[in-house]
Amino acid sequence: MSVKPIRLFGDPVLRTPAEPVKDFDKELRQLVKDLTDTMVDAPGAGLAAPQLGVGLRVFTYYVDDVLGHLVNPSLDLSDEQETGDEGCLSLPGLAFPTPRSVRAVAKGFNMHGEPITVEGTHLLARCVQHETDHLDGIIFIDRMDTEQRKAAMKAIREAEWFGDPLPQVKVSPHTTRGKAV
User: Fold this and answer.
1) Which residues pair with 119 in a beta bridge?
2) 41 near 71, Cβ under 8 Å?
3) Is 131 noted as a catalytic residue in this protein?
4) Which of 19, 82, 86, 131 is catalytic?
5) What is the C-alpha separation between 123 and 98, in angstroms, rounded?
6) What pLDDT tens digit does each residue of the chain (181 aa) get?
7) How far apart are CA 126 and CA 98, in angstroms?
8) Based on CB atoms within 10 Å of each CB, which residue in 33, 122, 126, 177 is the most buried?
């Protein structure tokens, strides 16, 4: 098992857009394994490479008993939106209502460079959007309106982990069906 420390809100890597993967090699396969092991251990519904301090466009997901990953994703989103509670392993213990598209189609590659498509609604769509946002340097609270974002920032500043120099997160108590998004 290769569980790695998860970077917390405030770490600049979380605000830095990730670079596309160019080499589908042994190092990429190890990164996917590290992401998967860390996500399952946390537990979470998804984890993006920047959350482990790696600036590459890769994320893993575990939704409705389906475990997968996506490299260099691009999204096609439905116009229909829904607001639902969303959490993040980089903001442990916090969840806030966040608007997202109901349906998402994500196209990219697996760790071997083979093209894949991930299609989903509701939780899977939310997860794919959340993780792709991480790859673009966006954190889910950026999707909230101004008033909600101010309340979220207040909760973040009051969180016991905020400002903690230790980046490791082991458990996220606010989860959706047992998994933080």
Assistant:
1) 105
2) no
3) yes
4) 131
5) 12
6) 689 999 999 999 999 999 999 999 999 999 999 999 999 999 999 999 999 999 999 999 999 999 999 999 999 999 999 999 999 999 999 999 999 999 999 999 999 999 999 999 999 999 999 999 999 999 999 999 999 999 999 999 999 998 765 444 443 333 333 344 4
7) 9
8) 126
Order of all β-strands in the sheet with 103-109: 46-48, 58-63, 66-77, 103-109, 115-121
d(CA 109, CA 17): 19
Beta strand pairing call for 115-121 and 81-88: unpaired
pLDDT of residue 113: 97
Q: What pLDDT was estimated at residue 1?
A: 66
What is the distance between the alpha carbons of residues 103 and 157, in angstroms, rounded to a whole number?
Answer: 32
Tokens representing 11 are 């770490």
* Closest CA relative to residue 134, chosen from 30, 43, 56, 79: 56
Separate counts of helices (H) and strands (E) for the chain: 3, 7
Tokens for 27, please give them.
């190092």
Q: 176: closest CA among 131, 126, 102? A: 126
d(CA 133, CA 98): 13
Hey, how many other C-beta atoms are within 10 angstroms of the C-beta on 88? 31
